[in-house]
Amino acid sequence: MGRKLDLSGLTDDEAEHVLRVVRRDMKLRKKEEDRLSDLKHELEEEGARCLLLAKQCGFNEQCCIRCCGPFSFFLKPRRVCLDCRYNVCKACCSYRQHKNGYVCVFCHKSRILVLALAEVTRGTVVEPVPVCGDDIER
Ligand SMILES: [Zn+2]
Ligand SMILES: [Zn+2]
């Protein structure tokens, strides 16, 4: 435990290589942090926008809170997001088999953000997760 970076036993080439890897790792982490702060900002704006829309009487009864498109029985069926409880259209949510319900893109992104932030805090860099997972309903 508590291994330190000891370069004394390495040749110059090896030491150079190790340093390059470390630098690359730091760069990756910085990039990941930037990406997460962008995502966080985006989610905050979306949250504020959605609160405004939800205040408009009856808006969410007729229109998707995410894309603002009007629901229609065949073309844009209405679903309820399990997390935020807003009405969303089929295109703005995905089916979660293990929850037996729908989660909207916004809540899905929020989850990714929380998970990714936890990873960054733990010090490991995760590969960017695609916003729509394999379990999306097509
Ligand atoms: Zn929508
Ligand atoms: Zn939601």
TrEMBL record:
GO terms for biological process: intracellular protein transport. GO terms for cellular component: cortical actin cytoskeleton; perinuclear region of cytoplasm. Gene3D superfamilies: Zinc/RING finger domain, C3HC4 (zinc finger). GO terms for molecular function: actin binding; myosin binding; small GTPase binding. It is found in: Cytoplasm, Perinuclear region. The keyword Metal-binding does not apply. The keyword Membrane does not apply. Residues 4-62 form the RabBD domain. It comes from the Eukaryota. Pfam families: FYVE_2. SUPFAM superfamilies: FYVE/PHD zinc finger (SSF57903). InterPro entries: FYVE_2 (IPR041282), Intracell_Transport_Effector (IPR051745), Rab_BD (IPR010911), Znf_FYVE_PHD (IPR011011), Znf_RING/FYVE/PHD (IPR013083). Keywords: Cytoplasm. PANTHER family: MYELIN-ASSOCIATED OLIGODENDROCYTIC BASIC PROTEIN MOBP -RELATED, RAB EFFECTOR MYRIP. This is RabBD domain-containing protein. It comes from Ameiurus melas. The lineage of its organism: Eukaryota, Metazoa, Chordata, Craniata, Vertebrata.
